[in-house]
Design brief:
four-stranded antiparallel beta sheet, alpha+beta, hpI Integrase, Chain A
Length: about 450
């Protein structure tokens, strides 16, 4: 015996749908179809039963239960008896129920981003903000720590949107209690803010749970610059590619990665220039930094026989192989220590209870370069262009000027200049002559004039 259709709520009519073959299905059936409404219109003398296909505002057939219920209420509300306020309340409740059913069905068919899948989605996204491999490795570490904490404290959470503001605040508090620095805290929370912001569509959370967590004050442990005597000592006492690496860093102000991976195609020995797009800004700023080559570095580069590929092949290979570049940094620090320079802040590191705070390292050469130029009167604009800082404020962070040191710098620079003038120039003269055979008459004339100046 065929069962009777389930009676719908009184006065609203009966909602159902028809599948592709035209067969009638329940409104809650998962079988795809188009929704219909069966209802009765009463007049004074008669009543008429109507079956009508439900369409949206664009006259397109309605295929979701949520939209069907909204259309049903719009059609039947004029025929409902009783207080209008109660009718509106009922309408609101039914729409809310339909929304919940729709969201549940949508999540089943297309679930929001799971915590376990979030890092893989971020790492492989074509729309995420580009960053260096080293920065990405740091982000991976931050998310790994976050995921582990969630698993240990809220193992029942499955989706990223399950992480609400209270949980985010608790996690941030945990980082502080772990004794992390303000810089680490800001980077860690900043990344979590970013992943929730950039993947808002996939996460489908009501809001970013980390958005209102404030940055903490950073007690920046800045690298100190070397004295002139220290700079000369660390360069003179080094050998092989390490000596050249320190020399390039000390007289150009380039970062470790840019020095270690410097290529001959970026070096112009004739004009005495280095043109390099810094690794740190390569993806977001394609403008190269142009740095003049001091005579002492020019002499060292001219002595190298192979002028193809990397200037320091061994150092470049080590730098690109070591993702964290820790081995090169440690070698540099050992060399500095051997030269009598203490690299760690007093009271930190081995033999103490505090984490080692590095005060002197390769980056100190960059500080030294900026400070020496500032003390010699080089304009801030020129320094900013040389080191590739985005603003004078960043350059000011590196600049440390004193009157006594300015006098000391001037005297030492006079000695360096005198020494440079005594270096034989025959290798450069011969190189210029060889190049002249392959250049235009105009360029040959310019080169000849240059030779005469020598």
């Amino acid at each position: 015996m065929k069962s009777k259709p389930k009676r719908s709520q009184r006065g609203l009519g009966r909602l159902y749908k028809r599948d592709k073959s035209g067969k009638e299905q329940k409104a809650t059936s998962k079988v795809p179809g188009i929704f219909w409404l069966e209802h009765t219109i009463k007049n004074k003398d008669s009543k008429k039963r109507i079956r009508q296909k439900l369409t949206d505002q664009d006259e397109e057939p309605i295929r979701t239960l949520k939209e069907a219920k909204v259309a049903q209420l719009k059609i039947r509300s004029p025929f409902l008896s009783g207080d209008k306020i109660e009718v509106l309340k009922k309408l609101k409740a039914d729409i809310g129920e339909a929304q919940q059913e729709y969201d549940k069905a949508h999540d089943t068919a297309n679930p929001p981003l799971k915590i376990i899948n979030a890092w893989h989605a971020y790492e492989n996204s074509l729309e995420r903000k580009p960053c260096s491999a080293r920065t990405l490795q740091g982000y991976k570490m931050y998310f790994s720590i976050f995921e582990s904490w969630i698993n240990n404290n809220y193992s029942e959470l499955v989706y990223m949107r399950d992480v609400i503001s209270d949980i985010a605040t608790e996690y941030a508090t945990n980082i502080i209690q772990a004794g992390k620095s303000g810089n680490t805290f800001n980077k860690h929370i900043g990344f979590l803010k970013r992943i929730f912001r950039e993947f808002a569509t996939e996460i489908r959370a009501d809001k970013n749970p980390f958005e209102n967590i404030q940055r903490r004050e950073q007690n920046t442990q800045s690298r100190r610059e070397l004295t002139l005597q220290e700079l000369i000592t660390v360069i003179d006492d080094a050998t092989g590619e390490l000596a050249l690496l320190l020399l390039i860093g000390g007289v150009t102000g380039l970062r470790l990665g840019d020095c270690a991976t410097l290529q001959w195609s970026e070096v112009d020995l004739i004009r005495g220039l280095v043109r390099r797009i810094p690794n740190k800004t390569a993806r977001r700023k394609q403008k190269p930094v142009v740095v003049g080559i001091p005579q002492m570095l020019l002499n060292a580069l001219n002595k190298l026989e192979d002028k193809t590929g990397y200037v320091m092949p061994g150092m470049a290979e080590r730098y690109t192989r070591d993702k964290n570049h820790g081995n090169i940094e440690k070698e540099i620090q050992r060399h500095f220590e051997a030269c009598g320079i203490q690299c760690h802040k007093e009271g930190t590191g081995a033999g103490t209870e505090k984490r080692a705070i590095v005060e002197v390292g390769f980056h100190s050469l960059r500080h030294t370069y900026v400070s020496l130029h500032a003390e010699r009167g080089t304009s801030v604009t020129v320094i900013q262009g040389n080191v590739g800082h985005g603003s004078p404020a960043m350059t000011a962070h590196y600049t440390h000027i004193s009157e006594d040191k300015a006098v000391e710098v001037a005297k030492v620079l006079d000695c360096i200049t005198t020494e440079a003038q005594e270096v034989p120039l025959e290798p450069q003269r011969e190189r210029l002559k060889q190049l002249a055979d392959t250049l235009s008459l105009e360029k040959i004339e310019r080169i000849i004039n240059t030779l005469q100046e020598y």
